[in-house]
Amino acid sequence: MINYDFVTESMRMHLTKQNRMVFRGFFPEDNPEGRTIKVYVNKKEIPVEITIEKSVDVRRRYLHYQMNVGEEVTGEFGIPEEPVTEIRVYSCKGSEEALSFRADGKLYQSICSQLESNLEMERLEEDKIVLTGWSAAGDTTKCEVFIDKKSVPFEVQWKYRKDVVDVFGELSDSINCGYEIFVPDQGGKRLVLILKAADKQKRFEILLEKVRQGEEKQTGSGYVRKAIAYWKHYGFRKMVRKVFYKLKGKKDTMNYEEFLKKYGVDENELERQRQDVIEGGPLFSIVVPLYCTKEKFLREMIESVQAQTYTNWELCLADGSGKEKSLKETVDIYAKEDKRIKYILLESNEGIAGNTNEALKMANGDFIVLTDHDDLLSPEALYQCAKAIQKEPQTDIIYSDEDKVDMNGRHYFEPHFKSDFNIDLLCTMNYICHLFVFHKTILEKAGFFQSEYDGAQDHDFILRCTEAAEHIAHIPRVLYHWRCHSQSTSENPESKLYAFTNGCKAVKAHYDRIGIPAEVERGPFYGMYHTRYQWKEEPLLSIIIPNKDHVADLRKCMDSIEEKSTYRNFEFIIVENNSTEEETFAYYKEIETRDNVTVLYYKGDFNYSKINNFGVAQAKGEYILLLNNDTEMIEPDSIKEMLDVCMRPDVGIAGAKLLYEDNTIQHAGVIVGFGGIAGHAFIGQDKEDNGYFSRSISVQDLSAVTAACLMVRKSVYEEVGGLDEEYKVAFNDIDFCLKVRKAGYLVVYNPYAQFYHYESKSRGLEDSADKVARFQREIALFGERWGDILEKGDPYYNPNLTLDKADFSLKE
To answer: Which of 411, 421, 629, 720 would disulfide-bridge 472, Cβ 3.0–4.6 Å?
Structure first.
C-alpha cells in the first residue's frame, strides 16, 4: 500500500527575506488523498504559503524515487522572534497528522548558519584536482582550499546552472551559481573546501587518495551516515521507506566490469585479428578536428589508432588551435615514425563543423571514420568494420556500440548497446553518435558538415548520410570509447541550449528533405526531440473493439475517447461475441443511436483474429485502430499521435504506451525473443522511468507492438491478409506486425499516445487442458513461421542485452 505522507526533500532559510524558511518536497502519487500541510514552530501552528509546480523538470528531479511524482510542493513560512526550539512539518488529512520533518533548536541553528551549496563531484584531471558543484550565493561566494591543513592556490570558474536556479526561486535567472575549482595536485592526503558568503559557510572534506584512484565520492559508509541522519530528523519509519525507494531502482544484474571480463575482446583474439589478412580490404581515413586538445588526450587518441589490429588506415588531423597553440610539435613526434599520420595547421579556427570539413578534404580512403580529438578507438574497431564490409560489400554506412571512459582512460562505464538502424529513434535523438563510418560516395551525395547546426552538426550530418545510404550496417560491439566524467550527469546541459535548438532544426530539415510536413520541438529531456506532423488531411478512423459483457469497461473505454480525444473523425465498431448479460445488450441499444457507433454480432467461439478481421471488413475508415475493451485513453492527443505517425507512407503500424492501473508500464513495445518467444519491453517499471537510454519514452521503430492498442492503415491490413486466424488468442498481433515488417513497412512505438490497459478482462486464464494445448500450438506455429528472427535476434534489440528480463540489462 502506498504511503501518502509528504516527503520533505529540503528545509532552508529564504535567500533574500529575513526570518523566513522554505521547504520543498512532494506527495507520492501527487497527493491523491488531498492532504494538506501544517507547520508548527515551538508547538504553535504557523501560517504557510504553498505553491505547486508541475513540469518535466520536476519529474526529472524525482525519478530516483521510482514513484509517480509530477508535482513539487514548496512551502514558505515566517519564524517568530522568540528563540526556536523546534520546527515540525506535518502531512494532514482531517484530524490525522503524519510527521514529515522535525528540526530541534540545534538543527535549526545549523540550517541558519549553513550556506546553501553543494560539492557534487571531485575528479583527477591530468595534474589537477577538479571540484564541481554550486553555491546559491553565486560568484560572490568566497572559496578556500586546504590540503593537510595548509592553504593552497587554486583557480575557480563560475557558470550558469539552470537546475539550481529552478530549485531556488529567489535567485536571479542570470546568476552564475555553478563552480569548477582547479587545484594543482601536489600530493597530500586530505582536501578541505570551504565556501563562504555573508555570515554563512559550508565545509566539505575529501580523501585525495580515493580521488586519485577514481573512486566516487559517495561510499557505503557515506550512505550509512546519511541514513542515520535521516533517521534522527524524520523517524525510523520514514528512513526505512526512503532507503527502500532508493534501493528499488537498483537491478540485480551483471555490471559492466563483469561483462567486459566475460565478453570483452582479449589479447589472444586481438593477436588472431592481426594475423587475419583481409584481401582487398578498404583504406579507412580517420578524420579528426583538433582544437586546443590536451596533449595527454591527443597522444592517447593517436595511440589508440596505432593500436588497431587492422592496419590499412590513415589519420587525418586538421588543427584549428592557431599558431600560438599549435599541436604540430606533439603530432610530429608520431608522424615522423608513422607516415599514415597526416597533419595540417589551419589558418583560423573554423569551428567544429569547419575544422571537420578541412579534415575530410585530407581523406583519400574508401571509407571515412569520424572520431573526436579526445576519444579512443577500441583496438578491433577497424578490423570489425573491414569484416562487415567483406561480408556485405554493398555496405555504405557502419555504426557501432559505444561506452564511456573516465578522464584517466582507465574506467569504462555506461555502455550503449544500440538498435539496428532505427530512423524514428534517430529523429528522436542522435542514438548513432559513435562510431560512425561511411563510404566516400556518401560524402559526395550528402555534402559536408554545416556550421548552422553547430552543437548538433553530427546529428544533422548523420541524418543526411543515412538518407543517401542504401545499406546501413550496425556492429553490436563497443568499438568506441567516449571520454567524459563518470558523474557527468552533474554537468549542466542547459549551458548548451543552442545545441538542442539546432538539433530541432536538424531534424526538421530532415523531414523537409524527404517531403514530410512536420515541426520539431524539444522532447522530455535535453537532446530529445518530439515531431509534430502537419498533415492537412483528417481521414476517418475506425476503432474496432471486441466485447463480451464487461459493460462498465466498454463504457469507460468509449467515454474516454469521446470526452478526451482531440482527434474527432472516428467511428466505433463494437464486435459483440457471445455476451450473456442483459445489461450488455441494453448498452448496445443505447449506443447504436449514435451516428458514429456500429454494433456487429460475431457468433463463433472466441478467436481474437477472426473477431477483428470481421470488424475490419465492415469498417469504413481509411485507418483502423484495434483496441481492447479494457483500455482507457489517458492523453487527449493519443489518437492524433498514432495517426500522425501512421499517415507516413513508410509506416504500416503505430503502437502506444500502455499502463497498468497502478501507473506502471504494461507495454512499451514488443521485443521478439523475450521469454523465448516475445514480450513487452519495460513491463512493471514506473511510467516515468526513462528506460534504457530513454527507450521507453522515445518514438522508435520496433519489430512489434501489442494489438491491445494498434493502429494500421486499412490497405496495409488487407495487403498482408489481416490477423492470421490460426492464432486464436496468442501471438496474432506479433505475427501480424512481422508480416507488415516483411512487406516493407515500419512498426512505430509512440509513447506520447498513452492508455491504461486493465488487461484480459474479456477472456479467462489459460486454466484448462484445451487452452494450454491451444497455447502450445500457437507457440509452435510462431516458432515455425518466424524461426529466423528468433535465431538471429530482434534487429531492434541488441544481442548484448538479456532476454530473461524486460529492463534491457546486460546479458548474464
So the answer is: 421
Looking at the structure, do residues 174 and 205 belong to the same domain, yes or no?
yes
Neighbours of 368 (CB within 10 A): 21
Asked if residue 612 and residue 542 are part of one domain, the reply reads yes
Residue carrying the nine cell digits 528545509: 11
Give the residue with greater pLDDT, 503 vs 58.
503
DSSP string computed for 389-444? HHH-TT--EEEEEEEEE-TTS--EEEEE---SS-HHHHHHS----SSEEEEHHHHH
Neighbours of 603 (CB within 10 A): 8
Q: 457-468 and 351-361 helices cross at what angle (nearest 10)?
A: 40
Displacement of CA 744 from its chain's centroid (Å):
28
Shared domain for 66 and 153, answered yes or no, is: no
What's 444's domain CATH number? 3.90.550.10
Is residue 677 one of the residues assigned to a domain? yes
What are 775's strand-pairing partners?
A: none
Residue 637: closest CA among 691, 689, 565: 565
- Domain range for 283 is 267-490
The 3-state DSSP class for residue 373 equals coil
Q: What confidence score (pLDDT) does residue 364 get?
A: 96
Nearest to 101 by CA among 228, 251, 293, 235: 235
Whether the pLDDT of residue 231 is over 90: the answer is no
CB 190 within 8 A of CB 148: yes
pLDDT tens readout for residues 335-352? 999 999 999 999 998 889
**The C-alpha cell that represents 426 in the structure block:** 534517430
Q: For position 147, what pLDDT does the model report?
A: 95
Helix H or strand E encompassing 324: none
What proportion of the chain, given as a percentage, has pLDDT over 90?
66
CA pair distance 551, 548, nearest whole angstrom: 8
Q: Looking at the structure, do residues 616 and 699 belong to the same domain, yes or no?
A: yes
Global pTM value: 0.77
Angle between helices 769-785 and 732-742 (to 10 degrees): 10
Please tell me whether residues 392 and 445 are part of one structural domain: yes
Residue 806 domain-assigned (yes or no) = no
pLDDT at residue 687, rounded to an integer:
83
Separation CA 135–CA 8 (nearest Å)? 21
pLDDT band (50, 70, 90) for residue 662: confident
Per the structure, how many domains does the chain have? 4
Distance CA 110, CA 232 (A): 15
Instruction: Verify cis geometry, omega within 30 degrees of 0, for the bond prior to 435.
Output: yes
Residues in the chain, how many?
812
Rounded to whole angstroms, what are the CA distances from 74 to 10, 53, 134, 164?
10, 8, 21, 15
The Cα 782–Cα 733 span in angstroms is: 11
Q: Which long-range contacts (CB under 8 A, 24 or more apart) does 648-651 make?
A: 648/516, 648/533, 648/746, 650/745, 650/746, 651/745, 651/746, 651/747, 651/748
The pLDDT tens digits for 130-180 are 999 999 999 999 999 999 999 999 999 998 887 788 788 888 878 899 999
Q: Which amino acid is at 692?
A: Y
For residues 319 and 554, give the distance between their C-alpha atoms in angstroms, rounded to a whole number. Answer: 66
Q: What is the mean pLDDT of the chain?
A: 88
> Are the beta carbons of 427 and 503 closer than 8 angstroms?
no
pLDDT band at 57 (very low <50, low <70, confident <90, very high): low
CB 425 within 8 A of CB 700: yes
Q: How far apart (Å, rounded) are the C-alpha atoms in residues 381 and 514?
A: 32
Q: Using one digit for the tens of pLDDT, what is the confidence trace for 285-322?
A: 999 999 998 999 999 999 999 999 999 999 999 999 99
Cβ(531)–Cβ(507) below 8 Å: yes
Task: Note whether 630 and 770 are same-domain residues.
Answer: yes
Q: Provide φ and ψ at 755, rounded to 5°.
A: -135, 150
Compute CA distances 119 → 205, 216, 495, 532, whole Å: 10, 12, 19, 40
Q: Is the pLDDT of residue 766 over 60?
A: no
pLDDT, one tens digit per residue, over 500-554 is 889 999 999 999 999 999 999 988 888 899 999 999 999 999 999 999 999 999 9
